[in-house]
């Protein structure tokens, strides 16, 4: 279900052909090639948000959700569910990416807003750096306004599921082999009203896979089995291309760092009235003892070997729109379903080299869900090679990036200026 069509910001095309020729150099000096691994650490922000089919306003400010001032990160992976209403027309008809593009515009504005940083007064500024200085009382520091440069390396929509990945501009050249895989688990077991959009890429020599999913809904006892089935289906059916060197991982769990997030739809296995009463008292521990996802995890029926951080925040579903009140807590309207609160929106991870530093929720009232976000410290390996110029070119990522770009540009058209659309 869904094509492998995606959107990304690319470096200017001139950069693709400005490769220094090795002609005239000593191509074959007698130097041994060494291959060493260097470790880098980056901050990774991951968030999921079911926006309930509500289109964002033009002036929606995402800075609070992304927490760019207090906790800036190097990589942002954002997943949405129900970016469009899950009507028959949207599920069966042609894909409308206007709303997804609007979200990307708002994300770009939030991430690339000039940010204040503190700097010692004796430190010199880089040539051409745009900044503004404000003196402080001790006279030893100043506030510098530093422009940000985040690039979208890949975005993909399937019906209402949308995932978009952003990296610092200086990291963009180290990102290779971006690819997508879509799995529909909805109507008839294949349509995209439920399912997943997965994205993979390699940063330096470490492979990443991000799975944004919307699993089966339903608050009745036994509905968790359908969610388990969706998760197993996504694991089995998600597949990525091998890449030009035929050495890239194909399946989700083959990647070095894997994060699964979305509206997983697991509920709390307690009577609705009891759940509401405990929510009002903020009795999270009792509620979590009856959380379906935790129960299924502990019994090994789903996500075996996966991890989730401690939950210290209120259930994220289901709210009245533009309200802090859960459905059913007030006098329900005629015919209104009394859905009990639940932690439907979750972030899980698998693999080494990931350390979760934050797991929290946002407080936007845009939809009936609250967004959930996590911040990770992630280790990334880089291969350091010392060789002659010709070997260096063919063994380094420079050739891979050129191959990637020519593959992406092959026979494609531009959706907007500087944001091309691709079809694998």
UniProtKB/TrEMBL annotation:
<keyword id="KW-0378">Hydrolase</keyword>
<feature type="domain" description="Inositol polyphosphate-related phosphatase">
    <location>
        <begin position="40"/>
        <end position="384"/>
    </location>
</feature>
<protein>
    <recommendedName>
        <fullName>Inositol polyphosphate-related phosphatase domain-containing protein</fullName>
    </recommendedName>
</protein>
<dbReference type="GO" id="GO:0046856">
    <property type="term" value="P:phosphatidylinositol dephosphorylation"/>
</dbReference>
<dbReference type="GO" id="GO:0004439">
    <property type="term" value="F:phosphatidylinositol-4,5-bisphosphate 5-phosphatase activity"/>
</dbReference>
<dbReference type="GO" id="GO:0034485">
    <property type="term" value="F:phosphatidylinositol-3,4,5-trisphosphate 5-phosphatase activity"/>
</dbReference>
<dbReference type="GO" id="GO:0004445">
    <property type="term" value="F:inositol-polyphosphate 5-phosphatase activity"/>
</dbReference>
<dbReference type="Pfam" id="PF22669">
    <property type="entry name" value="Exo_endo_phos2"/>
</dbReference>
<dbReference type="InterPro" id="IPR045849">
    <property type="entry name" value="IP5P_plant"/>
</dbReference>
<comment type="similarity">
    <text>Belongs to the inositol polyphosphate 5-phosphatase family.</text>
</comment>
<dbReference type="InterPro" id="IPR000300">
    <property type="entry name" value="IPPc"/>
</dbReference>
<dbReference type="InterPro" id="IPR036691">
    <property type="entry name" value="Endo/exonu/phosph_ase_sf"/>
</dbReference>
């Amino acid at each position: 279900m869904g094509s492998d069509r995606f959107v990304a910001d690319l470096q200017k095309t001139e950069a693709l052909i400005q490769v220094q020729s090795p002609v005239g150099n000593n191509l074959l000096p007698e130097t041994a090639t060494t291959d060493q691994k260097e470790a880098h650490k980056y901050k990774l922000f991951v968030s999921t948000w079911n926006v309930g089919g509500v289109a964002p306003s033009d002036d929606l400010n995402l800075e609070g959700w992304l927490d760019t001032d207090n906790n800036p990160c190097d990589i942002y992976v954002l997943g949405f569910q129900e970016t469009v209403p899950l009507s028959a027309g949207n599920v069966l008809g042609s894909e409308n990416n206007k709303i997804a593009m609007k979200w990307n515009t708002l994300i770009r504005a939030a991430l690339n807003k000039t940010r204040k940083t503190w700097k010692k007064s004796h430190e010199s500024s880089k040539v051409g750096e745009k900044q503004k200085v404000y003196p402080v009382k001790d006279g030893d520091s100043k506030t510098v306004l530093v422009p940000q440069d985040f690039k979208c390396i890949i975005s993909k929509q399937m019906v209402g599921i949308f995932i978009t990945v952003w990296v610092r501009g200086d990291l963009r050249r180290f990102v290779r082999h971006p690819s997508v895989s879509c799995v529909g688990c909805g109507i008839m077991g294949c349509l995209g009203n439920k399912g997943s959009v997965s994205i993979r890429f390699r940063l330096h020599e470490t492979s990443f896979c991000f799975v944004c999913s919307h699993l089966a809904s339903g608050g009745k006892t036994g509905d968790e089995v359908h969610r388990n089935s969706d998760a197993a289906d996504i694991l089995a059916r998600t597949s990525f291309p091998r890449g030009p060197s035929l050495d890239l991982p194909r399946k989700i769990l083959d990647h070095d760092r894997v994060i699964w997030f979305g509206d997983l739809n697991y509920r709390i296995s307690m009577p609705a009235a009891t759940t509401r009463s405990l929510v009002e008292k903020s009795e999270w521990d009792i509620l979590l003892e009856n959380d379906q996802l935790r129960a299924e995890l502990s019994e090994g029926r789903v996500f075996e070997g996966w991890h989730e951080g401690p939950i210290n925040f209120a259930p994220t579903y289901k709210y009245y729109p533009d309200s802090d009140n859960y459905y059913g807590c007030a006098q329900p309207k005629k015919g209104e379903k009394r859905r009990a609160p639940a932690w439907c929106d979750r972030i899980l991870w698998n693999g080494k080299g990931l350390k979760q530093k934050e797991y929290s929720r946002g407080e936007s009232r845009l939809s009936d869900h609250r967004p959930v976000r996590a911040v990770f410290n992630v280790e990334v390996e880089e291969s350091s090679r010392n060789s002659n110029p010709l070997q260096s070119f063919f063994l380094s990522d420079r050739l891979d990036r050129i191959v990637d770009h020519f593959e992406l540009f092959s026979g494609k058209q531009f959706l907007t200026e500087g944001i091309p659309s691709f079809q694998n």
